Amino acid sequence: SNIENAEAKMRGLGFAASDIDSAMAGASAAVDGTAFALDEMASAASVAMAAGVKPGEALNKYMATLKNSAAAANAPLADMGAILNKTLTSGRAQTQEINQIADRGLPIWTKLQEQYGVTADELRDMVSRGEVDTATFMQVMDDMTGKVADEMGGTTSASIRNFGAALSKLGADMLQGLYPVIGPLFEALKSGVQMIQTFGAPAFEAFGAI
Q1: What's the pLDDT band for 204 if we cut at 50, 70, 90?
Q2: What pLDDT score was predicted for residue 61?
Q3: What is the pLDDT of residues 191-203, one digit of tens each?
Q4: Binning pLDDT at 50, 70 and 90, where does residue 99 land?
Q5: Pick from 89, 87, 25: nearest CA to 60
Q6: In sequence order, which residues have a C-beta less than 8 Å from that of residue 91 and are 6 or more positions away?
């Protein structure tokens, strides 16, 4: 259901079928070997595309940064994605988003200081003036978290979650042909119920008057 909703959102945003296929393939590759599920990444991809990330190399790089950042922060993809997407839509990293990342145990302030070669106070002034652009911020996030998701995917707890994610992908594949039929089936049932309501109303009223 989540995968279907993500693809529907991509279509609603006007993306071509080839772009959607590319995004879904990238999402599947991104979560392979990690503790994250495909539907989580598909949803995150649709939100990123809505924020202006283009399908293909840019989106794949975004998803790699997202999964590693979320793994390093021990946070759900949706939560970390919400933070990163705010910088995408605004075009710059702001104090609130940087603090949210720092609160999750990632030394983002220190890494940004090193990137720009400034002191803590100078960096805060830069952020307040909107001088920390999204591209630099995302690159620092990528450099800082590296391949955390892949490394953590080999731990015992993550392996158990990864097994669940694999089952989720298997279930999605099994339902791929059946699931699109379910919606129209219920639409047909709804139409039948509406017909009963329309043509049965007089009888229902008569019965109620007895």
Answers
A1: low
A2: 94
A3: 666 666 666 666 6
A4: very high
A5: 25
A6: 133, 134
φ/ψ of 74, rounded to 5, equals: 55, 45
- Report the C-alpha gap between 82 and 91 in whole angstroms: 14
Residue bearing tokens 């990123």: 48
State how far the Cα of 33 lies from the Cα of 161, in Å rounded to an integer: 10
For residue 26, give both structure tokens.
């990238």
> Six-digit token pair at 169?
């992908």
d(CA 2, CA 19): 18
How far CA 186 is from CA of 18, 126, 179, 189, in Å, comes to: 29, 55, 12, 5
Q: Between 138 and 178, where is the model more confident?
A: 138
- pLDDT, tens digit, 9 for 90 and up, residues 118-132: 999 999 999 999 999
User: CB of 166 within 8 A of CB of 116?
Assistant: no
Count how many residues are written for the chain. Answer: 210
- How many other C-beta atoms are found inside a 10 Å radius of the C-beta of residue 186? 10
> Residue 150 and residue 159: Cα distance in Å, rounded?
11
Q: Which residues contact 169 (CB under 8 A, 6 or more apart)?
A: 28, 37, 38
